[in-house]
Amino acid sequence: MSVVVNRPAVVLVSGGLDSATVLAIAKAAGFTPFALTFDYGQRHRFELDAARRVCQAAGVTRQVVTKIDLRSFGGSALTSDLAVPKDRDADELSHGIPITYVPARNTVFLSFALGWAEVLGAADIFIGVNAVDYSGYPDCRPEFIAAFQHLANLATKAGVEGTSQWQIHTPLIDLTKAEIIREGHRLGVDYALTHSCYDPDESGRSCGHCDSCQLRLKGFAEVGLADPVSYVS
Q: How many helices (H) and strands (E) are present in the chain, helices listed first?
């Protein structure tokens, strides 16, 4: 990625490992990050506190926490009382779309990011989607990102008038979890501030068994580092 100088960009920051890394990458590339976090009714609400910690540590210009109620629709273990899958093996993780998929979540999130970016006069949006070590979510694929970027240039005043061309940056999309962690360490990301677990206990300790925990732990193991967050087991 070429280096820019103080160009504004909206960065989606969930509080997880991936988004913390993307925020560091955007800063290292010279962008001025405006962080967007969603309180969407997720069961793993500890990630909201993590997002605030990550943004504070990164010194973002502004963080907006937007509240939307995806729990009113349900349809996902993250926005309903459905059980979060645990201890799935590698073959299960790599096939099918799990119940932790939140319908249209990234479409909704990017739409909000697009609106704020246009208000800011920004043409760049960063999101930490990944198509390698991920749980099969359809809205994490390159095809989806390319389609949304095309939509952005059709559906906005800036795009129609040609004052800017939208770019959706996905710097992690082709990286393994280990490669993401390695890049984050190079950029000084403090992963102790992050939260990835889908089903933490009441004190916020990660379960160690959901898909997100398994992928995270696998990544740290492959890098040869201990995950700095607390686990129940």
A: 8, 5
**pTM, rounded to two decimals:** 0.94
Q: In whole angstroms, give the CA distance from residue 217 to residue 211.
A: 10
Domains, the chain, ordered by start: 7-223 (3.40.50.620)
Contact 19, 12 (CB under 8 A): yes
Spans of the chain below 70 pLDDT: 1-3, 133-135
What pLDDT, in 10s, does the model give residues 28-75? 999 999 999 999 999 989 999 999 999 999 999 999 999 999 999 999
User: 177-186 and 211-223 are packed helices; what angle lies between their axes, rounded to 10 degrees?
Assistant: 60
Q: Which residue has 């890394």 as its token pair?
A: 21
Please enumerate in sequence order all residues whose Cβ is within 8 A of that of 167, keeping only pairs 6 or more positions apart, or say none: 123, 124, 125, 149
